[in-house]
């Protein structure tokens, strides 16, 4: 019988192909593949397979005089910028044997080179092999180019992440305007639902087709026939590509295993994505601690507490940071899985329990204390390992997770997190009683308060000062509010709303010009790299664009017939509540009566399915349903939060105990990611390395 283990093992199997070629080689790897490997065994797996060294994929790197073999692992097409970097590295080295792995299949290389016919063999890869020999300086040297779908990373036994597609995000109405601008007036699309894949820019087509191809490779590897379903315009495009994938038709005829895959657009519920939930430890760790360079998921843990070093400017870069990805140790792996989906209290107690267990194994003098777990207590337990080299090595994974927990629990950013949570709860209640303009007025004092606090860069300050929300927090709060705007009471009309919005833009413009340090988000939105460049005109113009995007967020569910609300207003007895969209979708899927939900569209894979759909209008033919098969995949296009991972687990347990549900997504979200993806990401033209 097909189980989830087969799928969580799939990413490792794909890396085996790479590992089989790295013996005695120097390995060059781009950031996206490095992040993927980080969760798939890490650099250790390459070194154990015989690699001599691992270097960044950069024109400023090269092999040494005595290094004859190189392996390149890239997430992009082998053309443009990617090809130039490979050429630069080879030209400055003395390689005689080069192997290139790309996560993009040959069929998509043909598409990128505008070849529409199916060709025998892999001509694009063969041509690139010739170029490699040319760059090495001898056509008799050895070059190999091949596809390895190193796309998924197992973050837990129930969750696969795809860092390569971390910038893939559902389109917004502003993107539709950009698409329509290039089309004749009579052929313009009236809604995002009408857009077909061929109308998209080539870069986005390549990303969608690459994702469909990676999913097809996973189903092929596990002998699975999938039924695809979609909720949302972008999901429909991806599901359609997977359904019509040329290699999938043969696989589906013979595959003995069956599964359903439901794609869901993140934009259908941005409320949950920017919500500062009070009860998930990993969400807070991801928001409080600095990210690992080049990564979108993992963070840096300060390991100084376990050493005898003093905190001075000189030790910057001397001590390697810890992280959340724990591939080597099973106690650390199981602790991470608990932290990811448990409530904060349970997770923190589990951290303490694992530390006590590790200290006991090493016979360290631990003083047990019951009751509430504090950051200080976790730190004091971790410091028992200080100077005990062997003990630190034996329990490095648990110690990294413990220190990440302690550093987060005492981080000043948590005060702002709690403040954001409190404001979101207040605004949620206000929406049921007031129109949007009146609720927006309640945000104005928060912006003015931030303007009044000195050094008002998000992330600075402590105590009372830190409770003042920074510019990044305020943008996330506005996304939260506008994502629910259609749920507000009808009010005085657009004029009143526009007046308040002008005031908000004015107050935010002033706040941006007062920044003493610019966060990466503010730099991306405004294009200013320093506070000196942040002029009134630049800030005002950028914020007008932000508000244009905000105004359309509440309309994302307009096309849905049934699942069009994520808000339950107060009835006088109960407070207004947020109803997660994911929970509603799962309740529909696992409903005992198996109702047909018009919003969960089945994507037909061919003529048989179309005939079934046609006949069902005249006679009783059962149409495919997501709960038909023993295994369900939920693919969240645009990201999933740790809170939602727990929500999925709890909802499935309540409605279908024992059901196997595997979550896939493009990224593990922090609230701060959503403003970046909405206001500072080119969704139509993603960077594909060309």
TrEMBL record:
<dbReference type="GO" id="GO:0016192">
    <property type="term" value="P:vesicle-mediated transport"/>
</dbReference>
<keyword id="KW-0813">Transport</keyword>
<dbReference type="GO" id="GO:0015031">
    <property type="term" value="P:protein transport"/>
</dbReference>
<dbReference type="InterPro" id="IPR001619">
    <property type="entry name" value="Sec1-like"/>
</dbReference>
<keyword id="KW-0653">Protein transport</keyword>
<dbReference type="InterPro" id="IPR036045">
    <property type="entry name" value="Sec1-like_sf"/>
</dbReference>
<protein>
    <submittedName>
        <fullName>Sec1 family domain-containing protein 2</fullName>
    </submittedName>
</protein>
<comment type="similarity">
    <text>Belongs to the STXBP/unc-18/SEC1 family.</text>
</comment>
């Amino acid at each position: 019988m097909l189980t989830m283990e087969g799928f969580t093992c799939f990413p490792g199997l794909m890396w085996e192909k790479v590992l089989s070629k790295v013996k005695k080689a120097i390995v060059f790897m781009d950031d996206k593949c490095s992040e993927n490997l980080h969760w798939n065994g890490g650099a250790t797996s390459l070194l154990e397979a015989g690699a001599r060294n691992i270097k960044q994929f950069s024109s400023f790197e090269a092999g040494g005089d005595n290094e004859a073999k190189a392996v390149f692992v890239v997430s992009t097409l082998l053309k443009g910028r990617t090809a130039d970097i490979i050429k630069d590295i080879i030209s400055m080295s003395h390689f005689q044997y080069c192997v290139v792995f790309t996560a993009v299949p040959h069929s998509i290389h043909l598409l990128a080179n505008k070849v529409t016919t199916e060709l025998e063999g892999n001509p694009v890869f063969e041509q690139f092999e010739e170029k490699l020999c040319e760059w090495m300086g001898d056509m008799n040297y050895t070059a190999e180019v091949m596809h390895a779908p190193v796309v998924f990373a197992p973050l837990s036994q129930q969750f696969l992440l795809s860092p390569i597609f971390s910038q893939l995000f559902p389109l917004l109405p502003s993107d539709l305007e950009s698409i329509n601008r290039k089309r004749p007036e009579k052929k313009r699309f009236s809604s995002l639902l009408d857009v077909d894949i061929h109308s998209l820019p080539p870069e986005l087509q390549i990303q969608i087709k690459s994702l469909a191809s990676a999913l097809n490779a996973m189903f092929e590897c596990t002998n699975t026939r999938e039924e695809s379903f979609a909720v949302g315009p972008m999901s429909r495009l991806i599901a359609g590509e997977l359904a019509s994938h040329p290699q999938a038709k043969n696989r589906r005829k013979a595959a003995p295993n069956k599964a359903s895959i439901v794609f869901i657009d993140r934009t259908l519920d941005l409320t949950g994505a920017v919500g500062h939930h009070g009860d998930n430890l990993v969400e807070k760790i991801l928001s409080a601690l600095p990210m690992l360079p080049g990564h979108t998921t993992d963070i840096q843990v300060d390991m100084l507490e376990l050493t005898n070093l003093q905190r001075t400017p000189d030790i910057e870069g001397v001590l390697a940071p810890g992280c959340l990805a724990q591939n080597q140790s099973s106690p650390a792996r199981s602790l991470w899985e608990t932290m990811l989906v448990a409530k904060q209290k349970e997770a923190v107690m589990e951290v303490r329990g694992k530390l006590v267990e590790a200290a006991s194994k090493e016979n360290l003098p631990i003083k047990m204390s019951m009751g509430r777990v504090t950051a200080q207590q976790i730190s004091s337990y971790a410091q028992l390992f200080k100077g005990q080299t062997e003990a630190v090595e034996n329990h490095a994974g648990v110690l990294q997770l413990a220190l990440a927990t302690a550093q987060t629990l005492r981080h000043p950013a948590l005060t702002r997190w709690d403040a954001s949570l409190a404001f979101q709860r207040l605004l949620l209640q206000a929406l049921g009683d007031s129109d949007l303009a009146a609720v927006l007025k309640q945000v104005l004092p928060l912006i003015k308060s931030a303007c009044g606090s000195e050094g008002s860069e998000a992330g600075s300050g402590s105590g009372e000062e830190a409770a003042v929300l920074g510019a990044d927090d305020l943008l996330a709060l506005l996304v939260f509010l506008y994502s629910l705007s259609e749920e507000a009471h009808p009010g005085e009309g657009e004029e009143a709303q526009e007046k308040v919005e002008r005031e908000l833009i004015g107050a935010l413009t002033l706040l941006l010009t007062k920044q003493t340090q610019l966060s990466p988000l503010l730099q991306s939105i405004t294009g200013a790299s320093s506070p000196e460049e942040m002029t009134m005109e630049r800030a005002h113009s950028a914020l007008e664009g932000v508000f244009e995007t905000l105004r359309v967020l509440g309309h994302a569910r307009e096309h849905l017939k049934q699942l069009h609300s994520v808000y339950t207003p107060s009835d006088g007895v109960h407070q207004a509540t947020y109803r997660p969209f994911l929970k509603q979708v799962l309740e529909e899927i696992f409903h005992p009566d198996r109702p047909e939900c018009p919003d969960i569209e089945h994507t037909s894979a061919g003529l048989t399915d179309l005939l079934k759909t046609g006949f069902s209008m005249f006679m009783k033919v059962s149409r495919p349903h997501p709960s038909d098969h023993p295994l369900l995949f939920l693919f969240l296009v645009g990201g999933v939060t740790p809170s939602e991972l727990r929500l999925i687990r709890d909802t499935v347990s309540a409605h279908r105990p024992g059901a196997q549900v595997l979550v896939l997504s493009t990224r593990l979200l922090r609230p701060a990611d959503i403003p970046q993806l909405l206001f500072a990401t080119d969704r139509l033209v993603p960077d594909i390395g060309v």
